[in-house]
Specification:
The complex is a heterodimer of chains A (110) and B (115). Chain A is mostly beta strands and 110 residues long. Chain A contains no helices and 11 strands. In chain A, the strands form 2 sheets. In chain A, strands 2, 4, 5, 9, 10 and 11 form a 6-stranded mixed sheet that branches. Chain A has a 5-stranded antiparallel sheet with strand order 1-3-8-7-6, with no helix packed on it. The model of chain A has no long low-confidence stretch (mean pLDDT 95). Chain B is an all-beta fold. In chain B, the strands form 2 sheets. In chain B, strands 2, 4, 5, 6, 9, 10 and 11 form a 7-stranded mixed sheet that branches. A 4-stranded antiparallel sheet of chain B has the order 1-3-8-7, with no helix packed on it. The N and C termini of chain B lie far apart (34 Å). The model of chain B has no long low-confidence stretch (mean pLDDT 92). The chains are: A mainly beta (110), B mainly beta (115). Chains A and B meet through strand 4, strand 5, strand 9 and strand 10 of A and strand 5 and strand 10 of B.
Chain lengths: 110, 115
């Protein structure tokens, strides 16, 4: 039973445009969400997070939006750059552990 | 200066063998984890230790035995390896157990292939 879902396995975006990665969750008790970025042959690295008391958190080119009623969060990257090409995982804190989605592979082309 | 380092990076072995993966963190964190990323790329927690005490054991077969000799180390020993154990195993650490404001720092993974 997957509590955190990323339904798009891949996304292709032109450099300079906006990338929007989506994530859905099922447990309304989740109160903290994170996005991780992963390059091949490396571990995931933390990107940005959001608490359930907020609906938006911004850090440079990265913005995370949270819609609690829809149990949905999204990561916006603008402008997208070739170096953003990676796999992006969303994760939710459940009691004392992080539960990850299956990831979305983002490719930014020139 | 690697924050979370795990060895080996690649491990190829035969079914039935016993193998270990080592993990060390130099971040001074209290909590360490083992995650497994299977062929479907799903990152799933296996174990979590806080100050050398086991706090999460996610119904992992008892062929898998974690050991934390101190706060900075969390090793994973696997007995009687099976084909289905083939995966990438990630070690991670965090300052405290996950909650508001806490993120995990991951190692670069150990790709285990069982033949």
């Amino acid at each position: 039973d997957q509590q955190v879902k990323q339904n798009s396995p891949s996304l292709s975006v032109q450099e300079g445009r906006i990338s929007i990665l989506n994530c859905d969750y099922t447990n309304s008790m989740f109160d903290y969400f994170l996005w991780y970025k992963k390059y091949p042959a490396e571990g995931p690295t933390f990107l940005i997070s959001i608490s359930s008391i907020k609906d938006k958190n911004e850090d440079g080119r990265f913005t995370v939006f949270l819609n609690k009623s829809a149990k949905h969060l999204s990561l916006h990257i603008v402008p997208s750059q070739p170096g953003d090409s990676a796999v992006y995982f969303c994760a939710a804190v459940n009691t004392d552990k992080l539960i990850f989605g299956t990831g979305t592979r983002l490719q930014v082309f020139p | 200066d690697t924050a979370v380092s795990q060895t080996p990076k690649y491990l190829v072995t035969q079914m039935g063998n016993d193998k270990s993966i080592k993990c060390e963190q130099n971040l001074g964190h209290d909590t360490m984890y083992w995650y497994k990323q299977d062929s479907k790329k799903f990152l799933k927690i296996m174990f979590s230790y806080n100050n050398k005490e086991l706090i999460i054991n996610e119904t992992v077969p008892n062929r898998f035995s974690p050991k934390s000799p101190d706060k900075a180390h969390l090793n994973l020993h696997i007995n009687s390896l099976e084909l289905g154990d083939s995966a990438v195993y990630f070690c991670a650490s965090s300052p405290m157990i996950p909650g508001q404001g806490t993120s995990l720092h991951f190692g670069n993974g150990t790709r285990l292939t069982v033949t």
